[in-house]
Amino acid sequence: MEEELERVVPCSSQMVDSVIRVGTAGAIWGLCTGPYDARKQGLTGFSHAAFVARSVGGFGFQCGLVAGIFSLTRCGLQRYRRKNDLVNGLIAGAVAGAAVAARTRSLTQVLGTACLVSAFSAAADYSRTI
Question: Are 84 and 78 in contact (CB under 8 A)?
Fold first, then answer.
């Protein structure tokens, strides 16, 4: 049933769904870690609230970006290759990891992040097929 839906639903819709879901989870994570980090830095009052708000936005954006790139790439690969296997998740994870790490402009960090996200993506794909 799920595979039938993946063939019918456009890739852009899957991407928006992933961005909303994972971006919201990232924002909640930022809401949980932001106050702790602000207290650790000794911030109070308005600066504390501003730090938490930036933390929420940053985590939400970063997680949503990774999810959007991953789901769009994976869906496009599935449609292009006409296969639903681990290779799609590996490639999509590598692309998403490299895109996020590209800001660092360090080839070592780009390759490391691409490999790490690719491995987690493959593990998630594998666990979903069991």
Answer: yes
What count of residues does the chain have? 130
Tens digits of residue pLDDT in 71-96: 999 999 999 988 888 888 899 999 99
Measured distance CA(47)–CA(33) in Å, rounded: 15
40 residue type, one letter: K
Planar angle of CA 21, 51, 18, nearest 5 degrees: 10
Q: What is the mean pLDDT of residues 32-56?
A: 93
Q: Rounded CA gap, 73 and 96, in Å?
A: 8
**What confidence score (pLDDT) does residue 121 get?**
86
Amino acid at 96: A
| 0.90 exceeded by pTM | no
Answer for the pair 23, 62: CB distance below 8 angstroms, yes or no. Answer: no
Q: Is the dihedral of CA 33, 110, 13, 78 positive or negative?
A: negative
Cα 67–chain centre separation: 3
The alpha carbon of residue 10 and the mean position of all alpha carbons in its chain are separated, in whole angstroms, by 19
